[in-house]
């Protein structure tokens, strides 16, 4: 009994559970806390990837930027680029672009609870009406696959639509993605211009 109590106290201190009278409930991670956690990992590498991606964007481009911490780093590199238009399904990027007077299209839809990405039919409709020069999409991993993957099908469909409606498409992924197998493939490598 004492071991169980200690384990529950430890889980509660990590905010994984909430203890109740005689029971405990699992706390679900919010998209804000998941993003905050992911954005603190491999920051230097993500910033380096973002600088490379930003340097590839020609003047007056229309670009898709998908949800994710590496893609947010890319958006941060673009705050002085008044010549571009950004279309994104990620509220933190919308807010960053708007605060810096960058033209931005907020792609709406149902927001995924962990990633914070807008998905679903409305997101597809918005993306299908945009002719982009470049799409920058994230990946959860691509170990043992013939294309980049993500953890769920709704996000995979959004990424597919972005790639389809852009002249070029890049996957932005830090080194950890090489060793992760993810559920839903969203493109063949032949559809991807490059991986940064």
Biggest sheet, spatial arrangement of strands: 5-4-3-8-10-12
Report Rg: 18 Å
What pattern of helices and strands is seen along the backbone?
HEEHHEHEHEEEHEEHEEE
Terminal residue distance: 50 Å
Distinct helical segment count: 7
Structural class: alpha/beta
Number of strands: 12
Instruction: State the share of residues found in helices, binned by percent.
Output: 25-40%
For the largest beta-sheet, the strand count, sense and barrel status come to: 6 strands, parallel
How much is the average pLDDT?
89
Q: How does the overall form come out from the CA principal axes? A: globular
Q: Provide the β-strand percentage band.
A: 15-25%
Please give a handful of descriptors for the protein shown:
globular; 196 residues; alpha/beta; single chain; six-stranded parallel β-sheet; two-stranded antiparallel ribbon
């Amino acid at each position: 009994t004492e071991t169980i109590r200690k384990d529950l106290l430890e889980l509660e201190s990590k905010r994984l559970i909430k203890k109740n009278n005689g029971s405990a409930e699992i706390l679900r991670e919010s998209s804000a806390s998941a993003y905050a956690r992911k954005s603190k990992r491999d920051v230097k590498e993500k910033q380096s990837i973002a600088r490379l991606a930003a340097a590839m964007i020609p003047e007056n481009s229309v670009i898709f930027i998908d949800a994710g911490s590496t893609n947010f780093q890319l958006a941060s590199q673009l705050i002085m680029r008044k010549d571009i238009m950004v279309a994104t399904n990620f509220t933190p990027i919308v807010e960053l672009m708007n605060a810096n007077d960058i033209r931005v299209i907020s792609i709406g839809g149902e927001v995924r609870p962990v990633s914070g990405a807008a998905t679903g039919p409305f997101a597809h409709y918005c993306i299908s009406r945009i002719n982009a020069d470049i799409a920058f999409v994230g990946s959860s991993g691509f170990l043992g696959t013939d294309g980049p993957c993500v953890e769920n099908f709704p996000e995979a469909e959004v990424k597919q639509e972005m790639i389809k409606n852009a002249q070029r498409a890049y996957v932005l992924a830090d080194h950890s993605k090489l060793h992760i197998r993810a559920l839903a493939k969203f493109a063949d490598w032949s559809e991807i211009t490059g991986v940064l």
